[in-house]
Amino acid sequence: MKEILSKSCSDFIDDNKLEKLISNTKEDKARVREIIAKSMEKKPLQIEETAILLAAESQDLVEEIFNAARQLKKDVYGNRIVIFAPLYIGNYCINDCVYCAFRKSLRTTVRKTLNEDELLSQIEALVDKGHKRLILVFGEHPAYTADFISDTVRKVYDFKKNFGEIRRVNINAAPLDHEGYAKVKAAGIGTYQIFQETYHHETYRKVHPAQTHKGDYLWRLDGLTRAYEAGCDDMGIGALFGLYKWKFEVLGLVTHSLFLQNIFGVGPHTISFPRVRPAHGVDLDPKYFVSDYDFKRLVAILRLSVPYTGMILTARETPQIRREVLGFGVSQIDAGTRIELAGYTKKEDGQELNKEQFQIGDVRPMDEILCELIKTGYVPSFCTSCYRSGRTGQQFMEFAIPGFIEKFCTPNALLTLKEYLLDYAGPETKAEGEKIICKELAKIANPKTKQQVAERLQRIENKEHDLYF
Ligand code: SAM
Ligand code: SF4
Predict the structure, then answer these.
(1) I need a labelling partner for 412 at 20 to 30 A (CA). Which of 20, 39, 79, 357 fits?
(2) Ligand nearest 138 Cα, by number?
């Protein structure tokens, strides 16, 4: 029996409309500037407006878009970067996505589902590094039911070691039905992430064979609408760049975001924009691969189009690209990433591609990444406060409530960074981190908030944990 779609289900992606917008929109400097001005007022863009930004080809105009994205990131998000790690739970899969090393027909991939001991040792390894936020990743398989996912989430939350614990668990797995989402919500998940991969119908059909579960475009497109209806109000959308024209996928993401915003009054919490990476047994036509330059353009244009949506940049990208793109509006990155099943307890560095979904570009240890972030003026944050205080489903809240960032986000970033420095950081990160905490504390304008943060920092120094606003 086929599962039930959402009440608001519709195929809101009109390929012809998006194609026409791309081919008929010409570069227009004056319009680009007007649209940038609109973004700077933090208003979400319509797809026609995003199309005008996408049509900007001359280098000086693209540079203006980059500068605007940098400015908007500073105005909206400040210098905080939220840190997380992916944890692969199982790579059995019934689908046959051509770009993925986990696809069913690839017999040479080593398959595994973490057993309970392995799961606990992975969590321990992550906690020992200082992680507080995980995203659990699953292939699609009858064994990976909503009950199994919920059970895994509970085990992650239950793990405690000294003061170490995971405080927020997000999910990247196959789309569920309403009942399934209600179960994972009850287990306390944060974001449920589903990438549409490509919004272009014909390409979608080519890369996801029709007889597979994932071959059903609408079931996937409707996945997060069902999630919201079932109570998962924190949704993560994404596209896998390199399967079709990058400009089309940007318009697809913006259309999806506006769709959710229009029906629920809540847009997606995050947008992901992975580029396809080399992977075991994968040989893709490079026709639509995205250059580094275009990648920067797409990140900057997404930032301007959806000013209030968190943007996730993963370790698929190299350190160099991560450094450059971070300033264009990224709000979350993973660090210390290992994507081999049980990879966090492996002694040797280096990937074994026949056990992993794809090759990653940034294999640096978490502490090294954090140290670099701090030295370049960012405040790494392990904050999980909004979600744990029930402030979910309204990504606008932090921006709509005057002073919210200064009252909650910055203090929580500083408190969680302080915890990290005391419990896990290497000497250089610790020294640099203490400096940035002082600097950021001095910038807090409200004297009462400043005093409260200073007091809590002192309590953390005295070995208290998990203090937040
Ligand atoms: N199996 C679930 C699904 O397909 O929805 C979970 C997703 S998968 C484990 C995580 C994401 O990795 C996919 O949605 C896809 O976008 C991405 N991915 C797959 N193959 C990739 C590759 N070769 N390079 C980069 N990203 C890839
Ligand atoms: Fe399976 Fe997901 Fe890989 Fe597709 S992308 S083969 S569904 S793990």
Answers:
(1) 39
(2) 1
Q: What is the mean pLDDT of the chain?
A: 95
Average pLDDT over residues 67-86: 93
Helix (H, G, I), strand (E, B) or coil at 82: strand
Q: Which atom of ligand 1 is nearest to the CA of 279?
A: 23
313 by DSSP, 3-state: which?
strand
User: Pocket of ligand 2, candidates 88, 91, 94, 100: which has the most ligand atoms within 8 Å of its Cβ, to mutate?
Assistant: 100
Q: What pLDDT is attached to residue 381?
A: 96
Pocket of ligand 1, beta carbon within 6 A: 99-100, 137-140, 172-174, 194-195, 197, 240, 274, 276-277, 279, 282, 316, 357-358
Query: Domains, the chain, ranges and CATH?
Result: 15-71 (no CATH), 79-364 (3.20.20.70), 401-461 (no CATH)
- Over the stretch 149-187, which tens digit does the pLDDT of each residue have? 999 999 999 999 999 999 999 999 999 999 999 999 999
Determine the Cα–Cα distance for residues 38 and 28; give it in Å rounded to an integer. Answer: 15
Output the CA 176–ligand 2 centroid distance in Å: 15
Atom 4 of ligand 1 has which residue's CA nearest to it? Answer: 174
How many C-beta neighbours within 10 Å does residue 30 have?
7
Residue 401 binned pLDDT confidence (cut-offs 50, 70, 90): low
Q: What is the pLDDT of residues 435-462, one digit of tens each?
A: 999 999 999 999 999 999 999 999 999 9
Q: How far is ligand 2, taken at its centre, from the CA of residue 122, in Å?
A: 22
Residues 6+ apart with CB under 8 A from 116: 155
Question: What is the per-residue pLDDT for 388?
Answer: 85
The residue whose C-alpha atom lies closest to atom 8 belonging to ligand 2 is 139
- Judge if the beta carbon of residue 109 lies within 6 A of ligand 2: no
Q: What is the pTM of this model?
A: 0.96
| Alpha carbon separation from 384 to 169, 392, 426 (Å, rounded) | 10, 11, 23
- What Cα–Cα distance (Å) separates residue 47 from each residue in 93, 200, 219, 237, 301? 35, 16, 23, 16, 11
